[in-house]
Amino acid sequence: MTFIKKTLVSSIAIAATTVMAASAQAEISDGEVRIGYLADMSGTYRDLAGPGGLEALRMAVEDFGGSVNGAAIEIFSADDRNSADVGANTVREWYDTRNVDLVAGLVASSVVIAATRVIEENNGLGIVNGAAASSVTNEHCTLNHIHWAYDTYPLANGTARAIVDQGGDSWFMLTADYAFGHALEADVTKVVEENGGEVIGGVRHPFPTDDFSSFILQAQGSGAKILGLANAGADTVNAINTASQFGLVESGQQLAGLLVFLNDVYAMGLDATQGLLLTTGWYWNMDDEAREWSERYYERVGSMPTMVQAGIYSSTIHYLNTVEELGSDDPVAVRAAMAEKPVHDFFSRNGYIREDGRMVHDMYLARVKSPDQATHDWDLYDVLTTIPADEAFRPLSESQCKLIN
Amino acid sequence: MTMIFGVPLAVFMGQLLLGLINGAFYALLSLGLAVIFGLLKIVNFAHGAMYMLGAFATLLGMRYLGVNYWAALLLAPLVVGLFGMLMERVLLRRIGHLDHLYGLLLTFGLALIFEGTLVNFFGVSGARYPTPEILQGGYQTGFMFLPKYRAWVLVAALGVCLFTWYMIERTRLGAYLRAGTENPALMQAFGVNVPLLITLTYGFGVALAAFAGVLAAPLYPVSPTMGSNLLIVVFAVVVIGGMGSILGAVVTGLAMGLIEGLTKVYYPEAANTVIFLVMILVLLLRPAGLFGKEA
């Protein structure tokens, strides 16, 4: 092929792509913005996202006015039942039959890793709020999803470091025996050792476990100062309850909850949880802006929002704003434009979206109040310190994400 | 210090005691299942839900009616038992003449409905029920700290198991019951109201589950899914003991609690599976179960 021919062909190709891209960008597909909400609506993780998260999503759409540049916003939802299969198939069906524009919610890490793969195949967009695993934007990162509320890295970093600093330098780890627990255990061990502490023992318990008495007894016998709970949801609740029955705290040991949600603390009550240190992405009562939104949420749902539910609202508003400015719901263009703007609202402080899809923002170290400090049912945490956005999350220099060179 | 397979004796003893306490729970629950299966031939998949309803009745009774723990120990089994009798009268009786499988499906469906309805109202995080004041704190036994409440659970559960065994195997009422299920027509000819007897038995089996639920309320978070987590283990216990064998259910329940407790020390990863391993072994070697009669 001659040089001229080559140039000609490639310029036509470029022109064609540009035109196609422009036409894709200049409009909202199907004349509707379609948001699919995928979450555990009935199982272990229901209360931390579930129906409350769907309500937060609806609030965001209503507050936005129900339409973007004249295009209506449609919401549909499905229960993933914490099954990666069900989750991935649901998302696939949403692409095949409903042309979904944004997949929101996304809770159990296993479901999320499977679902984001489908989102990537369909070149769509997902915003992950519920999942904990930091691998979602590390080895499992894609150009097609963003991780919003929190992940395991700051949980381990914030809580473990603060505890070692306060003198809690010998740890016994109680770990849920599956990928998430192992990852959290590894992160915590690293942080403890880097700060001069030591992990002197541990036990990996089956997931899920109802009766923790035997493990608590082993922890008591270990002589460690801190019992680190590398588990989540009902397992954490059960472990903390059992520790309280066996007088773990009275005998001089302290608990470190590494993934504790507001609804867990509420369910266990302050008697069992007082003094527990934890890291959270947000707390409903941390300032006026957060409180104002939370009270509106409370009126609709009847409970105070978790960081996940607040994150769903925050990320949806950021998404809709971007679609409006861009005049398009093209997933890749929207993601790129979302990353260009800082995220600053009632949920996120100093937030921005990195190349790996991680929305970094300030995280908070909090302590659970004692019953006599609390003034009402949902008055649960004291926020102790702010962990600045740039220190909280895994630095890009350690990233294994394929989008980072 | 004396060591047993690399574990200090004190720790070993503590684990045995905890295993025994969990075993007492299994015994109580599998006993109800065994009574219902042994006497009525119903595979009661709603048993876990009944246990859960017992715990919820306790919680809601305290919250809205001011019923304390001790009253709940009596009232919750009564209320849930009556509810069970209603279920038997209205639903289970109509499929009594069909294959066991229909009863299994019906009770399983009912369990899902109860669970789903409560999830809708209460969520899944569960709520805490305070330990009654007199049972708070614990004993320092030398080898472990034993919470008073766990000691109470052991005593109460074993007491009720013993009472049930005695009622069914050693009293005239129990004899009627066993005869009535063996040959209902003959018993009716003797003037015994067999359908009523069956309804009462189902109610009693369900009440046992509810009683276990009341005992569990201060130990575990009261949540709609608490029963389904336990049900499969309890079924395994019944299969190991021999379907329908009352003594088998109690002894196996305790033994499985102990085995599970020891697994938690030596190989905690397998703690949830060890009972099923035992079940497979028993099914291979003694298909009718350890205490079952060969069919």
Structural account:
The complex is a heterodimer of chains A (405) and B (295). Chain A is α/β, with parallel strands linked by helices and 405 residues long. Chain A folds into 2 domains: 197 residues, Response regulator (Rossmann fold), CATH 3.40.50; 128 residues, Rossmann fold, CATH 3.40.50. Chain A contains 14 helices and 15 strands. A 4-stranded mixed sheet of chain A has the order 2-3-1-4. In chain A, α3 packs parallel to α4, α5 packs parallel to α6 and α8 packs parallel to α9. Chain A is globular and about 75 Å long. In chain A, 56% of the residues are buried. About 2% of the residues of chain A have low confidence. Chain B is mostly helical and 295 residues long. Chain B has one domain: ABC transporter involved in vitamin B12 uptake, BtuC. In chain B, 71% of the residues lie in helices and 3% in strands. Chain B has 11 helices and 4 strands, in the order ββααααββααααααα. In chain B, the strands form 2 sheets. Chain B has a two-stranded antiparallel ribbon with strand order 1-2. In chain B, a hairpin with a 4-residue loop joins β3 and β4. In chain B, α1 runs antiparallel to α8, α1 runs antiparallel to α10 and α9 crosses α10. The longest helix of chain B has 32 residues. Chain B is globular. The termini of chain B are far apart. Classes of the chains: A alpha/beta (405), B mainly alpha (295). At the A-B interface, β8, α7, α8 and α9 of A face α1, α9 and α10 of B.
